[in-house]
């Protein structure tokens, strides 16, 4: 019996029908990963979008991005996730990608205290370039190397609380600990905020229409 390969045995009419019935995307969001070189930003993104981990992952030069579509509640969300270089010489390039990001993941290596101590620098970049309504998530990465830990969990939690109570999570791209969860939590926060803002805008428009109608009625 022959092997059926992808794309074989399906008529063009059936293929077109499947395309028509495919569930449309409800929302498109941009996320961005920032943090020092070598903290595992690229590995987290690779794991989330492809399920694979590369031991000797090359450092990102400038910026790169990947796309993944996920379900949040009853909504289908298409994510464009930007991976930025951690070296200071690329800041002039990467800063442009902050502005359109609805969610920002600030990553440090919990086995290297210096990457944690540099978080203040990255928060200044967020304050300077990111949108005020962007949701933030602090990520302590490389949880699989617990015996080499240099940054306690409570230190990460304390830092996160100092910045408007942003979310905090520890993860491991290597063993896939909390990777899906941290991205989903951030996207859920973004979607919730977008939904609230949309509702407030709708209510404002309703009030405006009601006011205009009342004025028209009294003048008439």
Automatic annotation (TrEMBL):
- Quote a single Gene Ontology cellular component term: recycling endosome membrane
Q: Which PROSITE patterns match?
A: RAB (PS51419), RAS (PS51421), RHO (PS51420)
- Alphabetized Gene3D superfamilies for the sequence: P-loop containing nucleotide triphosphate hydrolases
Can you say where in the cell this protein is located? Cytoplasmic vesicle, Autophagosome; Golgi apparatus membrane; Lysosome membrane; Recycling endosome membrane
Q: Where is this chain compositionally biased, Polar residues type?
A: 1-16
Q: What family does the Swiss-Prot or TrEMBL record give for this protein?
A: Belongs to the small GTPase superfamily. Rab family.
Provide the protein name. Ras-related protein Rab-12
Recorded source organism is: Eptatretus burgeri (Inshore hagfish)
* Classification of source organism: Eukaryota, Metazoa, Chordata, Craniata, Vertebrata
């Amino acid at each position: 019996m022959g092997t059926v390969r992808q794309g074989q045995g399906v008529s063009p009419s059936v293929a077109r029908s499947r395309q028509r019935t495919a569930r449309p995307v409800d929302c498109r969001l941009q996320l961005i990963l920032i943090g020092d070189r070598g903290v595992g930003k690229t590995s987290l993104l690779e794991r989330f979008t492809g399920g694979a981990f590369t031991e000797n992952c090359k450092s990102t030069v400038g910026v790169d991005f990947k796309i993944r579509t996920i379900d949040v509640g009853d909504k289908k969300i298409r994510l464009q996730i930007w991976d930025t270089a951690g070296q200071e010489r690329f800041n002039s390039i990467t800063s442009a990608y902050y502005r359109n990001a609805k969610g920002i993941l600030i990553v440090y290596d919990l086995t290297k205290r210096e990457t944690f101590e540099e978080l203040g620098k990255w928060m200044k970049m967020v304050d300077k370039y990111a949108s005020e309504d962007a949701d933030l998530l602090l990520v302590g990465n490389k949880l699989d190397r617990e015996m080499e830990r240099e940054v306690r969990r409570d230190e990460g939690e304390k830092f996160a609380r100092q910045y408007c109570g942003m979310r905090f999570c520890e993860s491991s791209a290597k063993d896939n600990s909390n990777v899906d969860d941290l991205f989903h939590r951030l996207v859920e926060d973004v979607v919730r905020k977008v939904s609230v803002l949309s509702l407030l805008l709708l209510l404002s428009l309703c009030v405006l229409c009601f006011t205009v109608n009342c004025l028209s009625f009294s003048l008439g």
